[in-house]
């Protein structure tokens, strides 16, 4: 019998330990990137020359994120969203329920959560985007694994071609103000205005957010939608193939890790060298920081899955705490937004723009510790995380039982 990375319970109602574990790593890992949006002006997310420092420890912080995490943690989340979506659909069908009704109720309420999060808390919301792409992905759930992978790769190719329009526009001198705001170094007056808004009161921040980002999930659907749909398809294929279930032999996970990272890691190091050598020029950022990473990301995300499952120790203290954080990923994701906006925005401590890039990461470490500390004890007493319970209750049209052992 082949040795599996993690035990998989064949019960149709049992949670998959592998999915919870990977999701736990993803919800922690995505904060490595989101913290930049919480604490620094928008342009600094991609280009450290815009704000936050680009020498010494700040450059090292950028390089580690760029080579290992940027886009990969979001992609890992998207893989898991596709896999979990398929799992919910299959279990609804096994219970004799309407899979479409179950799925679209969940996506509708996720869309409501997403827009509430976007409008009231933070402009970096991803939930509304996932809800809309999840509605589209439902129609692809019955594709064979090979066709899921093929369609996903076609969408990645289309995204690469779409993104190539940015460096071409830079070369031709088109749309430069908008591109500079995204990945270049905006004028100092623009940066100062953004900092002043975020250090101000809630009313001013809310107004600016609604004006600039109120309908951004709809407007950006065509930019990021194909890539996100591809990742969800890869996640569904990963579930069907047994990869995300932890059912592959360890030797197969090792081979995939060596191949995926053996190709992509040197490529990412080369892209980082290009960007640093060009001193984060607009052209280098458009090519090496924006367009060329697109076809590399899926393989590196698959490598992350393999690495996580290979390092997992079933029953180990860190593994169980990561899995608990993953079971409460929805709550932990929203909680980090509430905490970080309270730390960085003017209606809280007002740290926005005051810390350099590397100085943001002690905040990340503290939030990681909090997620790992509180998730497991909570699930020992309650069946769901608070926001998971609310989402489930709304989607099912009735209050779900909360107290008691964690639900499968």
From TrEMBL:
- Which key words tag this protein in UniProt? Membrane, Transmembrane, Transmembrane helix
Q: Does the keyword Lyase apply?
A: no
Q: Where are the transmembrane segments?
A: 21-40, 75-92, 150-170, 256-276, 296-312, 333-352, 358-374
Q: Which Pfam families match?
A: DUF418 (PF04235)
- Answer whether the UniProt record assigns the keyword Transmembrane helix to this protein: yes
**InterPro entries on file:** Bact_Transport_Assoc, DUF418
The highest taxon in the source lineage is Bacteria
Q: Which residues form the DUF418 domain?
A: 240-397
Give the protein name, as stated in the record.
DUF418 domain-containing protein
